Records
---
Amino acid sequence: MLTDESLKGHDAELVQKLYALVSDWDYRDAQGTEPAKPYMNAIRDIDSLDELYDYMCSEDNLMQLYPFTMNVDADPVDSSVYVMYVDPAGLILGTEEEYRDRTEVGDLFYDEAKQIAEYMLVRLGYGEEEASEMFENSIAYETLLAEAIPSDKHERGKKTGAEDCYTFGEFVEMSEGFPVDRILEAAGLSGGDTICVSTPEYFAALKDVYTEENVPLIKDWLAVKTASELTDLLDKETSKTVAKIYGAMSGIDSEGNEDLIVLGTVAGYLPIPMDNLYIRQYCTEQQREDIAGIVEEVRQYYREMFENEVDWLSAGTRKAAIEKLDNMHVNVVYPDELEDWSELDFAGPDEGGSLLEASKAIRRFKAERKAGLLGTEADVYKWNQSELPASSVNAAYSGYNNTINIQAGVLIGEIYNEEMSFEQKMSGIGMIIGHEISHAFDTNGAEYDKDGHRNNWWTDEDYAAFQDRVAKLVAWYDGFVPMEGLEYSGDHVKTEAIADMTSMKCLLYIAKQTEGFDYDAFFRQYAKLWRDQSTPEVVREAILTDVHPAHYLRINATLAQFDDFLNFYGITEGDGMYIAPEDRVAVW
Ligand SMILES: [Zn+2]
């Protein structure tokens, strides 16, 4: 896709033009870090709060850095129209709690960001000590922002409601003393009437953070963030050294594969054109029919399983669960309508273009695209290709619209190919599909109804029984020690553990209804799904940050819950994988 000249159309032109810029290392090396200098100088020249605001609203603000994010999404009340959402900007340490009480997760993010920032700042001409101080100042500035985020107001990940909607005037008023109106205008996003604000306290507090006194801290933050985002836009030495730093953090001594670095850069800046090319090149209508067929098969058995094998719920709650299952929207392989980036253009190598300027044009285009959606008609069921590219190796469930996405990229390796046997398909793609459906019934999914609204569809008694079962699962996972010296948290992995076990239960239900089912082929294929080879550094990071159980637990802990598995291999009391029936923890 990067080099095949037979590919035609605007998407191919964009991809191949950017590829030419990214892969022209001679030109990039000749330019060195020069393209970044004017932008770093613009930050250096800021001398007052007024100049800081001017900078933030100007083209010099290369990475569009503001203390808050602006997104356009369906109105939480009237979901047929797009409105704006503003939220506190992402923080270096991940969450605001990390600035109050730092954990090992915060340490991990701190070390990573510090290494990259310091290297990049020195590369861009700052002194070593200076760079280190600038990074500390960035953390100090973010600590002030973090203090302004109320920790108890909103549980993370919950949907915004009617109570969070404000008019533009109300938003400006709550942020008095900080020019949100100027920033929205500069970002091209001042057109909407409704603004969803999850944390008004944060916006009220910005004027206390943005003071003349704090300008030096904020300048250093701008420099750190800008420099850290430039890693893939400069010369080869920068690119290789950054790859080496990331490699070392993962326990790998490597400069990275040059082709993969180039591919990653092109795909990172042009996700939609790349995705469109991938879909046109590699996806077929037949694949969609096949995968949609497997989804319906799994859904049918899932329904029966709820009816026949969930005896701890009242008939009413079970009926509501089945309604939710029936109403689930399904997106498979690729979207009906591809996202259109035909309005985007930038100068290629023949037109005197540079990679950095191309990246700027792309960023501006994305912002304008977002602005163009404001006030227009929204379709909550529309496949969001930016968030869920068809080509990514992924599948997802979204509680907000009760939708599962099974993307084309996941139809690979041990997960799916047309030649697989029924059993192999079931433990590969069948497992993935069952897993995503199950998220509708994990601890998050339980709070959203069949239309994706935050409504209670449980009786009090049933919900209490559900939570009891979840508590048992959490306590059981707490007991694992995948890595010495690291606490393992059942609470952290519970939604994914529930999804794995529920999916396995459904698949074993299908197996039971299938004559001559080859259990050995099924279980072996399942074990291949999550097998991998990792360094201790990668495992450690996954335990700290990944909400999925450790890979070996996704296989072993899941299978050991079921008699079908234990009996098939003759696993009994005294064997390592044996769990007594009363100690088993599958929630569903
Ligand atoms: Zn999942």
---
Amino acid sequence: MPELPEVEALAAYLRDRAVGRRVQRLEVAAISVLKTYDPPPSAVAGKEIVDAGRHGKFLDVVFEGDLHLVVHLSRAGWLHYRDAFPNSTPLKPAGKGPIAVRVRLDDGSGFDLTEAGTQKRLAAYLVTDPALVPGVAKLGPDALAADEETFAARIRGRRGQLKGVLTDQEVLAGIGNAYSDEILHAAHLSPFAITNRLSDAQMATLHEAVRTVLTDAVRRSVGQKAAELKGEKRSGMKVHARTGLPCPVCGDTVREVSFADSSLQYCPTCQTGGKPLADRRLSRLVR
Ligand SMILES: [Zn+2]
């Protein structure tokens, strides 16, 4: 799932390639992906792309006349930039393929929003103001923009396990499953630490870890082509998706805790005083 650094890189790529170009046509193949009907997709035809940015993990493509195509890529969604399309035939609505939305530009290039797999969670909104998108309106401050005081207040304000609170987009925008594992590893904190019991020193370390991990990831990602971003994301990881491999910091074995539809990874020596966390799925089986 793309998080703040990957969405920032996609926006940077669009600023480089698409800004200044005019839209020839916005085609919608998967009706369920486009969550809005007014303005209609035809409203962007002939309009120039004037900017691209993000709100947390939402990508925002801005057209002249205050029109925004806001996209949440969710788990399996992605943006593919095409230098050219194989033909000019519009996408068929209710097409079976992975392409959900296609934006054709006046130089023959453009981009597709795609979603792999059967879980259809990719969401696109064509709106006159990004705040009209419910998920955007509820976002907390951007994870990279929050100063230490704001950060501490947001985290302490939501009592719970640190992993869950860090990835709650209403607390802070932009951090998901992968970078929260990396941030907690960098901060030497357990994913199950309780937010309002963190000391001031731990909170300062956590804030610094958020900035360092995300800034490094943005630096590695921006300038990469969309197609190369996923590999780039994985290559920078120290614990996320590295179960059973040695921690690059201390050499201990990276461990995992599994949940119904996700998992987290951590290093016991770096994060939990050497003590493995209970894997609830496993302990239920043993009992
Ligand atoms: Zn370690």
